[in-house]
Every structure is written in C-alpha cells, then in structure tokens.
Amino acid sequence: MSNHSGRGQVAGLPAWDRCAVMGVVNVTPDSFSDGGRWFDTTIAVKHGLDLVAEGADLVDVGGESTRPGATRVDEDEELRRVIPVVRGLAAEGVVVSVDTMRARVAQQALAAGAALVNDVSGGLADPDMIPVVAESGAPFVVMHWRGFLEGGNVRGVYDDVVAEVLDELHARVDAVLAGGISPDRIVVDPGLGFSKDSGHDLTLLAHLDRLHALGHPVLVAASRKRFLGRVLAGPEGAPPPARERDAATAAVSALAAHAGAWAVRVHEVRATADAVRVARAIEGARTGPDTPGAHASQPAHASPASQPAHASQNPPRRAEGAR
Fold first, then answer.
1. DSSP states of 247-274 as a string?
2. pTM here?
C-alpha cells in the first residue's frame, strides 16, 4: 500500500493528503435514504455537482438499491439510470465512482468517464466483473459481502466479527488479485450494515486499524445506516429517520479519518468535509507544524489542480440525500 499519513493512495486516482470524501448520488426510486430524490438525470447531475461544491472529492453514482429486501433492477434499466449521470459528471471534471454489481454496467460506466468501480459484492455477484475491471485497469472497491440482503443474509452470524470479516476480505482480495487487478488499485470496505447487526458495525468501527493489515486503503460507508439510528434512538427506542442521522455520520467520518481510512462515503457532504479537515489538522499538529499537508486552513476538497473548475463557480449548498 502506498502510504500517505498511513491511509494509503490508490493508483489512478488523485492523491489526497487526508481522508477523502465520497459523495453519494442514488439514481434510484427506492434507496433507503433518499429514494426518488435524484432519479431524474439532470437533477442527479446537478446534485453531484453540488456535492463537489460542498467538498466531495469524488462522487459515487448508483442505479440499484441494495437495502434489505430490495428487488433487483434489470440490467438495461440500471444502465439507463447510471450512464447518463456518469457521463454528465465526468464531462464536468468530477472524479466519478460507479456503484454496481454488474460487469456490463461497470464497463459502460468506465467508458463514459468513471474512474473507480465500487462493487458491494466484491466481484461475487457477476463472474465477469473482475475480468472487466482488470482489463480496464480501473481501481476496484472490494467490500465484505455474504450475499444479497434477503432471508438469513439480512443478519449475519459471527463468533468474532472482526477476525471473520478480515479473513473473508483477505480471501476475496486474493481472488481479485488472481483475476488480474493490480494490488495498488484495490480498496477494501468492511461492509457496514451488510449481513451485520448494529453491534457488529460498531465493533468493526472500533477496530478499523486492524483492516490496515490487509495492505490496502480502506473505504468506510457508514452514512445514515441503521446502526446509527439504533445509537440515536430515544427512550422509546424509535430510531430517527435516515436523513436525521447526518451529524452522527459526520462523527463516524471524523473517527474513521483518525483511524486512517482512505475515504468515507456519505450522503450529506458538508459536515463530513469539515470533519475530515479537522481530523487532518489535528493529525498535522501531532506530527509537527512543518509536516507537509498540515494545513488547518486548507479547504476540505482536493488541491486546486485536481478540483473541477465548476466547484468554485457553484455557491455552497447543503445537500440531502445509502445504497
């Protein structure tokens, strides 16, 4: 793993000097968090640009909900939803990630300008995914996955969730490497909320440092997820709605950045962009004021050279909007 502040860099992507912020654009009618809000292509592209203006370093575009019990969208419909949005954002200079489990969608998204493939199944859902990504040379996110969230897979059973997730991720990374994807283009994700209950998610977050043993940068996707609702639940135990979990998400983002995460995936960008900026400033203060990258006043986005021109032209807006 190429190190910068211990969190690693990913070949083929900009080199950020702190935890990067991945904004989410769900082009779906049924996402648990913001289903339907960004379903129109024009609105989705504008939302992605707004996220960048608020501090997102890259934008993750997905056209299929992976919430528990969701019905899979067919491939042609996923392509119809995703490709125009990827193309529109890439044309504006945005670093785009495509959130898909289908090789054909990944292939066409990469051709349309996507720079990263974020597959929640880690290549297990479609046997053609790894060969497609390997041939393209694109970076690839390998998430911990035990199958689609239905039946017994909604809540996984673990004796030691950290050890088992690490072992299963290690096996999946080995398979991805054997499939031809370069080691410096692999990102790992512990899969919070996927076949895990709230206790499992919290335990994994408490031991994020152990994921670095895999030797690859770590992506943390905690935004608005069910475990945060459980933590925030009132005396009656009723969790707040997904869009009322953004402050809790920003707290997790700060903790993940402190633990060395390469990036955090979030729906509401501004608070998390501030959180990772503060985490970087504290990191810089710990290692000394002359340490490269220890700039408390620097914006939360990437350097000007990698910042799309439109970001400075759009006024900051507060965006609302998991898989």
1. HHHHHHHHHHHHTT-SEEEESSHHHHHH
2. 0.83
